[in-house]
Amino acid sequence: MDKEQVSLNKYISSSGFCSRREADKLIEQARVTVNDELVLPGAKVRPGDKVEVDGEPIKSSAAKKRPIYIAFNKPVGVTSTTDVKDRSNIIYYIGHPKRIFPIGRLDKDSDGLIFLTNDGDIVNKILRAANNHEKEYIVSVDKAVTPEFVKQMSNGIPMLGTVTRKCFVRQEGSRRFRIILTQGLNRQIRRMCEYLGYNVMTLTRVRIMNVQLGNLGVGKWRYFTPEEVSKMNDMVSVSSKV
């Protein structure tokens, strides 16, 4: 019987309701019931158990649905959250007919590429810190970019009790640069710039892994191409084993 059990957060994530991390939050907020009873973090479920979030039934992933992968050019002012209390959230903005949720975050005051999906498994693989998936940004600042600024940014900046990983940085204009990160510390680029006495004016994410923002308009979204889906699955398959 124990072999049939699965952790509740994985069950919810696999259903496409939300990511595993979001499922943990829902459980902690006492919004999840199993067989009409509130459960604690770490709970497990068996086949046939009735799982509900805020009274809404969660269907098992056994009824496998077609996965959805979306690339969205998030405008400034839209929050990358599924919190229904936040009317500026990304889900309201897109208005997709299927239940989807964002992979990772992009600050409210930043714009550019963010993924949305109903595939909880790929979310967990992409978000693993050790996977080293690249994210590329174009950033404009409030004063001239210097060779010393580029050198310091690329070699690592102290922040949040650690030092940022070495990364690719290239000047793109007098007050603009391109940066490629393989980690996602809270407001990382803005904090790195502030440490060196710069303020970020605009910050646009133009690539995540193998998917480019390209000419996708601000506020517009598109489905991944079959080639993008295949390549991404290959990338997460390899990196999640490391």
SSE arrangement:
Layout: E1 6-7, H1 8-14, H2 20-28, E2 32-34, E3 37-38, E4 44-45, E5 51-53, E6 56-57, E7 69-74, H3 90-94, E8 101-103, E9 111-117, H4 120-127, E10 135-141, H5 147-155, E11 158-159, E12 162-163, E13 168-173, E14 176-181, H6 188-195, E15 200-208, E16 211-212, E17 221-223, H7 226-239
Parallel strand pairs: 9-15
Antiparallel strand pairs: 1-4, 2-3, 2-5, 5-6, 7-9, 7-17, 8-9, 10-14, 10-15, 11-12, 13-14, 15-16
Order of helices and strands: EHHEEEEEEHEEHEHEEEEHEEEH
How many H/I helical runs? 7
Distance between the termini: 31 Å
Tell me the name of the CATH homologous superfamily of the largest domain: Pseudouridine synthase
Question: What is the CATH first-level class name of the largest domain?
Answer: Alpha Beta
Helix percentage: 10-25%
Mean pLDDT: 88
In the predicted model, the low-confidence regions spanning at least 5 consecutive residues are none
Instruction: Provide the domain count.
Output: 2
Output the CATH topology of the largest domain: Pseudouridine synthase
Oligomeric state of shown chains: single chain
Structural class by secondary-structure content? alpha+beta
Q: Per DSSP, what share of the residues sits in E-state strands of 2 or more residues?
A: 25-35%
User: Total strand count, please?
Assistant: 17
